[in-house]
Specification:
Blueprint lengths: L20 H30 L6 H26 L4 H7 L1 H34 L3 H9 L7 H18 L1 H4 L4 H22 L4 H5 L1 H33 L2 E9 L2 E7 L13 E6 L9 E4 L8 E7 L3 H4 L10 E7 L12 E6 L3 H10 L4 E7 L8 H11 L2 E6 L13 H7 L7 E6 L1 H13 L7 E5 L3
Parallel strand pairs: 7-8, 7-10, 8-9, 10-11
Antiparallel strand pairs: 1-2, 2-5, 3-4, 3-6
Helix pairs in contact: 1-2, 2-4, 2-8, 2-10, 4-5, 4-6, 6-8
Length: about 450
C-alpha cells in the first residue's frame, strides 16, 4: 500500500475467501461474545433501576443518557479490539472486513456519545429545573459533577478522530497528522475511564458492575499491549529486520529491500501488506502500510513507495542497516481468493506493487492491465515484461490522460471488452488510488463480471 493507505480507516474492500464450516462457527462465537457483552451491559443498566415505570421525564432522559453512555464506552473498547492486530481474528474475519467494521463501529460509538451528552444534560436540566446553558455551566464547574472536564476533553478527542476520517477532510490531511489524531483516540477512551468508573451512577453503588467494567478495560488493554506492541517488537527483534538496499525505480518512486532471519515464518503472500516502522530519528514514531512489490521468497521482502507525502518522500534517505519493525502480513488480495481459472489483474498508478507480486504467484490464463497517465509513470516496466514472458502472461499497458477526449474511453466497459473479450469469465483483481480503483471496479461490473469475482484494493487512508 502507499503512504495514504490504512488501517483505521482503510478502504481495502477485497472480498475474502468463502468460509468453511469451522470458520463460520468461529465467526459465530466471536459475534456471540460481542453480543453477549452488549446484553450484559444493558442488563446491568436495568438491574441498576433505570427501567422503572414511574420515572419522570427528566429521570427517563437521564436514564437513557446513562444507557447510551455505557453502550458508547463498550463500542469504544470494541473499536480498539477490532484493530488490535489479533492474528486469529484477522485470519478469521479478514483485515479488509475488520477495517470496515472499525469505521462503522466508530461512527456508531460517536453517535452514542453525542446522544449520551444531549440526553444527560437535558434530563439533568429538567430535574434541576434550570435552563440548558445553566446546566452545562453547572456540570463543567467541577464541583457538583466530578469528571465532567475529563469527559468533555475525551468527547472532543473522539470527535476529532471521526472528523479526520471523513473523506473530504482526510484528503487534506498529511498522513502524519491523521495518524497523530488517531492516537488521540486512546487518550479519549482513557479519559472515559475516569468519567465512567469512579463517578458513573450505577458503578458507584454496584460493585459487581464496576468490577465487570474494570475487567473489560483491563482485557482490552492487555490485547492492545500484547498484540500491537509487544508481539511485533519481539518478532522483529527476533528476526532482525533491516533495510539492506534502497533503489530509485523512477523519479519519485523508490524500492526498499528488507532482510532478516527466518522470514519464511512470517507466512507472507504476494498481494499482502505490512505496517512498517523504520527505526531512525525521523520515522520511528509512526508505522505506515506498504504492500509487498515482490513475492516473498523467505530471504528478503521488497516494498515500493511513491512520494505522496512527507514520509514517503523521504524514504529514499533511509540508510542501509536501519532497523525495521513490521506488523503483518495483512490482507486477502491474494491467490488464495481465486475462484476462477481465468484471471484479470488491473493496476492503476502505484497500485502496480501488489499486482507485480501477484504476477509471480499466479499461474494459468492471466491477463495484466497497467493503467497510467504517462509513459514515464510506468514502474517495473522491465520486470513486468520479463515476468509476462517467462510465465506466459498477457501484459497490456494502457497510457493516456482520462481528462482528454481520447482518454475518456480508456478502460471503459466497452474498452475492457475490447482488450479482454472474455472478461465476463474472469476473476478480476483491481488495485490503485481510490478514485481510479472505484471507477475501474464500476466499469468491470458493467462489463458483466459478477461482483463476487471482483477484488478491489484501494490505496486510501
Amino acid at each position: 500500500m502507499t503512504e495514504a493507505s490504512y488501517a483505521l480507516e482503510s478502504a481495502v474492500s477485497a472480498r475474502s475467501t468463502p468460509r468453511t464450516p469451522r470458520r463460520r462457527l468461529a465467526a459465530m462465537v466471536v459475534w456471540a461474545v460481542l453480543a453477549g457483552n452488549a446484553v450484559a451491559v444493558v442488563w446491568l443498566w436495568v438491574h441498576g433501576g433505570n427501567a422503572s415505570e414511574d420515572l419522570s421525564t427528566g429521570a427517563l432522559l437521564t436514564s437513557l443518557g446513562r444507557l447510551t453512555g455505557l453502550l458508547a464506552a463498550y463500542l469504544a473498547l470494541v473499536q480498539l479490539m477490532l484493530l488490535a492486530r489479533i492474528p486469529w481474528l484477522e485470519r478469521l474475519i479478514g483485515f479488509d472486513r475488520l477495517t470496515v467494521w472499525h469505521r462503522r463501529n466508530g461512527h456508531a460509538c460517536l453517535d452514542l456519545v453525542l446522544a449520551h451528552v444531549v440526553l444527560i444534560v437535558w434530563g439533568y436540566a429538567l430535574m434541576d429545573k434550570i435552563s440548558l446553558p445553566k446546566e452545562i455551566s453547572t456540570m463543567l464547574g467541577g464541583g457538583i459533577y466530578p469528571g465532567m472536564i475529563t469527559a468533555t476533553v475525551g468527547t472532543a478527542l473522539l470527535i476529532a478522530v471521526v472528523v479526520s476520517s471523513v473523506v473530504i477532510v482526510r484528503r487534506r490531511l498529511r498522513y502524519e497528522a491523521w495518524y497523530a489524531v488517531h492516537l488521540a483516540a486512546y487518550a479519549g477512551i482513557a479519559l472515559a475511564w475516569f468519567h465512567q468508573i469512579p463517578t458513573g451512577n450505577e458503578l458507584v453503588y454496584d460493585h459487581a458492575a464496576a468490577d465487570y467494567w474494570r475487567a473489560l478495560y483491563v482485557a482490552t488493554l492487555a490485547l492492545i499491549v500484547g498484540f500491537r506492541f509487544a508481539a511485533p517488537l519481539a518478532k522483529s527483534l527476533r528476526q532482525g529486520l533491516r533495510v539492506v538496499d534502497v533503489v530509485e525505480e523512477t523519479p519519485g518512486v523508490v524500492s526498499l529491500r528488507i532482510t532478516g532471519r527466518q522470514l519464511d515464518r512470517l507466512g507472507a503472500r504476494a498481494g499482502q501488506f505490512f505496517l512498517w516502522r523504520f527505526l531512525d530519528r525521523k520515522r520511528w514514531w509512526a508505522s505506515h502500510p506498504f504492500s509487498l512489490s515482490e513475492a516473498p521468497d523467505g530471504r528478503s521482502l521488497r516494498i515500493t513507495v511513491k512520494a505522496l507525502g512527507d514520509f514517503s518522500a523521504r524514504l529514499g534517505e533511509l540508510e542501509p542497516g536501519t532497523r525495521v519493525i513490521a506488523e503483518g502480513p495483512f490482507g486477502v488480495f491474494t491467490e488464495a481468493a481465486r475462484r476462477r481459472e481465468k484471471v484479470l489483474l488491473v493496476a492503476g498508478g502505484i497500485g502496480i506493487t501488489p499486482i507485480r507480486a501477484l504476477m509471480e504467484d499466479m499461474r494459468g490464463d492471466v491477463v495484466v492491465i497497467y493503467r497510467v497517465v504517462d509513459e514515464n509513470d510506468i514502474v517495473f516496466r522491465g520486470e513486468l515484461e520479463r515476468l509476462a514472458d517467462e510465465r506466459g502472461l498477457k501484459l497490456l499497458f494502457v497510457v493516456g490522460d482520462h481528462t482528454t477526449r481520447t482518454g475518456r474511453r480508456l478502460l471503459s466497459p466497452r474498452h475492457l471488452r475490447e482488450l479482454v473479450p472474455d472478461i465476463a469469465e474472469r476473476q478480476v483483481y483491481v488495485c490503485g488510488p481510490p478514485a481510479m480503483a472505484g471507477a475501474l471496479e464500476r466499469n468491470v461490473r458493467r462489463a458483466e463480471v459478477p461482483a463476487r469475482f471482483i477484488h478491489t484494493e484501494k490505496f486510501a487512508l
